[in-house]
Specification:
It is built from 13 helices and 10 strands. It is an alpha/beta fold.
């Protein structure tokens, strides 16, 4: 997993219900264990709302400003408004005036209604977290983001290109071009697509990965949550199928489904050119699950447990 931990930003995404929040927290915990300065965040949650991600660390919501939330992991909520201030100050160079303008309720309502302006603020805040320095070194070596649902993720991924095509030129376009270059850099950013070992979630994960790649977002890994090891080798499986065919064995559908899902996962790994990591199923609570997954992430340099392209 070291190749993932050497990135600047990990975008943890997937369909609802696959456990991406637990996996995002686990990645942050595992990276902190190997000495990375890790910031864990989610996008613009409503203030005061119970956050599942913060709940992993016994909090109601992530802090508004960077601070340690537990186990060497730091937290800070990504806010569109903060990103607007950062983005506009880099273009206009008059931060006090921008702050005063954004404090206007009427202007704030107008900007929030402007197409894609909220997403632009989110982008700006995320990149600021990734490049922010303190005493001459990166404050956050790795930013792990629990991304929103699949549809919103696709919209965020295609935003810079869309706005550039609409605006054509000017300082805003130059700022957006820098954003696009950052997000598309495989040395800095990787999307981690979380799925379950079942046919429908695997198919949806494949569609999401293809959409992200089409929009220039690098895929860093396919992460399989709640995986159950297939219990038979090839010889045993052949013997079971022969018994089933002879009418001497029933109830093979569950084992066959697990076998088919494993084959689909291998095809997905090859198609996306991304390593495949499996995290064992467990009946633990959400907070315990994140640490259970983190315990399975190898602490060394090699991708132990990863299925590389062409492996069987």
């Amino acid at each position: 997993m070291q190749s993932l931990f050497d990135k600047r930003v990990l975008l943890v995404t997937g369909k609802g219900g696959v456990g991406k929040t637990s996996v995002a927290a686990a990645l942050a915990i595992a990276a902190a264990r190997v000495g990375r300065r890790v910031l864990l965040t989610e996008l613009d949650a409503e203030p005061g709302r119970q956050s599942s991600l913060a709940g992993v660390f016994g909090l109601r919501e992530l802090p508004a400003k960077r601070r340690e939330i537990g186990e060497g992991v730091y937290g800070e909520m990504v806010r569109a408004r903060t990103g607007h201030e950062i983005f506009l100050s880099r273009i206009l160079k008059v931060r006090p005036l921008i702050r005063a303008a954004l404090a206007s309720k009427s202007l704030s309502r107008f900007l929030e209604a402007a197409p894609s302006f909220t997403e632009m603020g989110v982008y700006s805040h995320v990149i600021d977290l990734a490049v922010r320095e303190k005493k001459g070194e990166l404050e956050n070596e790795l930013v792990v983001i629990d991304m929103p649902a699949t549809g919103h993720m696709i919209g965020i991924a295609e935003l810079p290109e869309l706005l550039i095509s609409l605006l054509e030129s000017g300082p805003v376009v130059r700022g957006l071009s820098a954003v696009r270059e950052f997000v598309a850099d495989p040395d800095k950013v990787a999307a981690c697509v979380v799925t379950l070992p079942e046919q429908l979630p695997i198919s949806e994960a494949g569609e999401l990965a293809a959409e992200l790649q089409q929009r220039g977002v690098p895929i860093g890994a396919i992460l399989v949550n709640r995986w159950r090891r297939f219990p038979f080798d090839e010889e045993q499986w052949a013997a079971l199928k022969s018994l089933e065919n002879a009418g001497e064995l029933a109830g093979m559908h569950r084992a066959r489904g697990a076998r088919d899902s494993e084959a689909a996962l291998q095809r997905l790994s090859v198609r996306t050119h991304a390593p495949l990591y499996r995290f064992d199923d467990t009946a633990l609570t959400r907070a315990e699950v994140a640490r259970h997954i983190a315990d399975q992430i190898p602490a060394g340099d090699g991708p132990s447990g990863a299925l590389q392209e062409g492996d069987s």
